[in-house]
């Protein structure tokens, strides 16, 4: 338990930041799942549309350093390849 005012404040800040990061991580995962579902369903137009939306989500999460920039790049690359390979 925090013993000083400074430590109590840091605990409060960490709690809020952790909740914010968890929410952003959840938004990221949902965006990726939407693209994968559109690809699995074979709907190329929907896949392209959700892919463009998910790109901004991935970049936003990476800019806030919730995930590493290389992980963001890897997600974008793999999703892009999957959308392009649709018949």
Main attributes of the structure:
87 residues; mainly alpha; Methane Monooxygenase Hydroxylase, Chain G, domain 1; elongated
Structural write-up:
This protein has helices at 5-41, 44-63, 69-84. The chain is mainly α. The chain has one domain: Methane Monooxygenase Hydroxylase, Chain G, domain 1 (Up-down Bundle), CATH 1.20.58. The longest helix is centred in the first third of the chain and has 37 residues, at 5-41. The mean pLDDT is 96.
Secondary structure topology:
Blueprint (H helix, E strand, L loop, with lengths): L4 H37 L2 H20 L5 H16 L3
Helix pairs in contact: 1-2, 1-3, 2-3
In short:
The protein is mainly alpha-helical and 87 residues long. It is 84% helix and 0% strand. The chain is elongated.
State the domain count: 1
What is the radius of gyration computed over CA atoms, rounded to a whole number of angstroms? 17 Å
Give the overall form: elongated
What share of residues is helical?
Answer: over 70%
**CATH superfamily heading:** Ribosomal protein S20
Question: Termini distance?
Answer: 58 Å
Question: If helices are DSSP runs of H or I spanning 4 or more residues, what is the number of helices?
Answer: 3
Which structural class should the secondary elements be placed in?
mainly alpha
Largest sheet: none
> What is the residue-mean pLDDT, rounded to a whole number?
96
The CATH topology annotation reads as Methane Monooxygenase Hydroxylase, Chain G, domain 1
Kindly estimate the percentage of residues that lie in beta strands according to DSSP: under 5%
